[in-house]
Amino acid sequence: MAGALRGIAGVAALVVVLTACGGDGGADWTGEDGRPLTLDENRMLMALPGKLSAPDGWKARDPESATGERALESCQEETGSNCAGLVAGGGGRYYRSGASDESDEKIKYSVYSFDTAENASVAMKGTVAQEREDAGSGARDLKVDTGAQEAEAFADGDGDSEVLMRAGAVLIRMQGSGVTDEKTLGQFARLQVERVRKAATGRNPDA
Known about the structure:
- The chain is an alpha+beta fold.
- It contains four helices and eight strands; from the N terminus they run H-E-E-H-E-E-H-E-E-E-E-H.
- The protein starts with 40 loop residues before the first helix and ends in a 7-residue tail after the last helix.
């Protein structure tokens, strides 16, 4: 597994094709101007999961967003790419109710928005390559219904998982610590993808 900021999960091996991961390639991922959906700093904060959006049985930490050098440094570390065209970044975390935030069972999000879908795809590709190298052998593919435009998911042998998604010009990295159940991962993946879609069009997902 990668270090603390790079991953709750260290990740996995074989790449899962878009259809196997439940990608929603038929959806409209562009805004009114015809450009791919993306997030500025304010919309990034709306898109991140918070306490109001925690599903039953889960709690959440307050999310954080960033721009500039802080966001760029985090993006480059996580994705192994140069993060060209980065607009904003942020993150959030869920953990099981009744457990501390340091519980072994939690789900962490990292969200990065770019100026183009192509730049988001490059960052996603870099993340997959980096995490596959870290994981080594013994990983297994996961079939996760994400609702994203592009998605890949896999788990390692230590009970951790990773789901990588692209929604328009936004990269979503979801890391599960002690969580590999495909149904649970799908629930959280779809929740985050829908938050991105709403926030990118100026709607607050918690409204």
